[in-house]
Amino acid sequence: MTRTLSASPVSRRALLAGMAGGAAFLAAPLHALAAAAAADPVFRHGVASGDPDATSLVLWTHVASTAPVEVTWEVADRPDFARILKAGTTRTDAGRDYTVKVLAEGLAPGSTLFYRFRLGSAVSPIGRGRTLPVGRVESLGIALASCSNYAFGFFNAYDAIAKDPAIDFVLHTGDYIYEYGGPDGWGETVARTIGRSHQPAHEIVTLSDYRTRHAQYKTDAGAQAMHANHTLLACWDDHESANNPWTGGAQNHQPDTEGDWAQRRAASIQAYYEWMPVREPEWLAAAGRTRMQFWRAYRFGDLALLHTLETRHTARAEQIDYMAYAASIVDDASAERFRTDVLGAPNRPILSPALEGDLEQALAQSVKEGQPWRIVGCPMVIGRVVVPDLSRLGVLPDPFPRLAAARTPQDLAKLAADPHVSLAWRGRWALPDYTDAWGGYPWARERLYDLSRRAGAGDLVFLSGDSHSFWTNALADAAGRPAGIEFGTAGISSPGDFLESGFGADTARKLDRAYADHIPEVKWTDNMHQGYVRVQFGRAQGTAEFVAVDTVLSRDYTTSVIRTDDFRRHGSSVVLAVKDGSGVS
C-alpha cells in the first residue's frame, strides 16, 4: 500500500513435543529436501503439503504433460521409503492445469511423514509433511509469512523457513502471488535488474493468466524448499485476485477493459485451488461449503486452536475512499463525524455470518477444553493504527499550506497522491492509515471482538500479514478492554511501505518510531526489512522472533533476529512481557 488519499494501485502491505515421528523429523537433512526440489523436469514445480487434520493431509505437485496422465503418490514414515504407509493413483489433465492434488487419509495423528509422486520413470522431489497432534502437546512453532512478490526479489525468507528447525508449520496469511505485470507493473523496475519479470508480461485477468502466474511463483527455489520441508496452513488476501477486492469489485479491476469482476474472481479462485495444497470443499467436514468460503480451524492437541479468516470475497463491504470525503473534513468536529458516521457506520462487514458462526463455536470449544492458546490467522493488521500528528511531531511537513495553494482538481489529485501530504493529512485528523485494513471497518472489528468475548476468548493471538511491516500490537476494543495481542509480519519480498512510498530511510525510521511512540496499541513496528516471524507457543508462555533477511536481490543472504517479544498467559488474558516483569495486555 501507498499512503495516499485515494485508493492505491499498490496494496500495503521448539518442535511439537509428544508428536509421533519427532526423532525422524529431527534426523532428516533439511537442506537435502530443499536441494532436491527441482531434480526432475517432469516435476519442475516441486511438491507441497498442506491443510492437515489429525489423520489426513493434502499432497500437491504439478506434472509437465500435454495429455491426461495417471500419477502415483506414496507416503512413508522414512525418507528412504523403505516402508510405504499409503499409496494411490490419481488422474490429471488440462482441466486441472496438470496439477495433482490428493487427500492422503488414514494417517497417524501427530506424525511426520514423507511423500513423493511418480509419473512413469520420473520421480518427484521428496516432501515432508505433518498431521495435527492430539492429546498432550508441549510446544508449537509457527512461521508467519505473507506478501511474496516475485518481481521484487528472491524468496529468501522462504528458504530460511525451510531450514529453520524451530518451525512445525507455516502459516501464510495471503498475497502468495501478485496480479501486476508488464512494463508499468509494480516492481518491474527491480525485476528487470534481477531477471524476475512477471509472467505473463501483463496484469493477470483470465484463468490462463492466473495459472501461469502461480506456476512462475512455484519455480522459485526458496518457495520449493519451504513447501518441501513444511506443511502449509494458508488463507488468502487481495492479490491472489486483484488489489483491494470487496464483494462487488476491486480497486484494481476495471470492468470496461477487464471484463466481469465475478468471472475474474472465479478464475483466480480456481487457479488458487489448483496450485495450492488446500482441501477441496468435498474434503471438508462441513458439508455444502464452496471454494470461496476459505477458512479453516486447526487443533494442536490440548495446546492451541488456530482459526484462519476469509476477509475478501464472502462478505466485505466496499472500502471507504478518503478522497470522496476529504473536502468535508475541515476541523476536529467534522473529522469526528467522518470517523463516527462514515468509517464507523454499522453493517459494513468483513466476515461472513457463516465464518462468524464457525469461529465463535471453535473459540467456545477451545475455552471449554482449556486450551491455553487461541490463534487467529488474519490476512490484515487488526490493531488500531491511527496515524499520529506527524507534522506536529516534526516528522513530516505541515500539509495544509500546499493543500491551500492548490487551484484545480488536478492539483489536489497530485497532492493526494503524494504520501508526504496524504499521511500528514491523516495524522492531523487522527484517521486510520489504511481503510482497506481493519481500521477502515471499526464496526466489523468490534463485532469480531464481541464474538470472541461471548465465546469467553478475549485473549486472542492474531498472526497477521498484508502490511509489509513487522508489528507487535496490544489490542483493545472500543471500550478499552483488552482484546488480545497481535504479531504482524513483513513481506517475504514485498518492500516496506514507507520506503516504497519514497520517504527515504531516515524518515522511514522516524515514522516507525512515531507509530510505536504515539499509537497506543502499537508497541513496536519496522518497515525496513523483509522476512518472517517465528512464533513459538509453550504451555503458558511464548516468544515471537522477527527474522529479517539482509537482501532479496540476490540468492546469497543472511538472516538476523531483529527483535524478540515474550508473551504469556495471565489469568484469562494474554499479555506482552515488559522489562519489569509485568505485562501489557
Automatic annotation (TrEMBL):
Coiled coil: none annotated. Gene3D superfamilies: PhoD-like phosphatase (3.60.21.70), Purple acid phosphatase-like, N-terminal (2.60.40.380). Residues 143-546 form the PhoD-like phosphatase metallophosphatase domain. Keywords: Signal. Pfam families: PhoD, PhoD_N. SUPFAM superfamilies: Metallo-dependent phosphatases. Residues 45-131 form the Phospholipase D N-terminal domain. Residues 1-34 form the signal peptide. It comes from the Bacteria. InterPro entries: Metallo-depent_PP-like, PhoD-like_MPP, PhoD-like_sf, PhoD_N, Phospholipid_Metab_Enz, TAT_signal. PANTHER family: PHOSPHATASE, PUTATIVE (AFU_ORTHOLOGUE AFUA_6G08710)-RELATED (PTHR43606:SF7). This is Alkaline phosphatase D family protein.
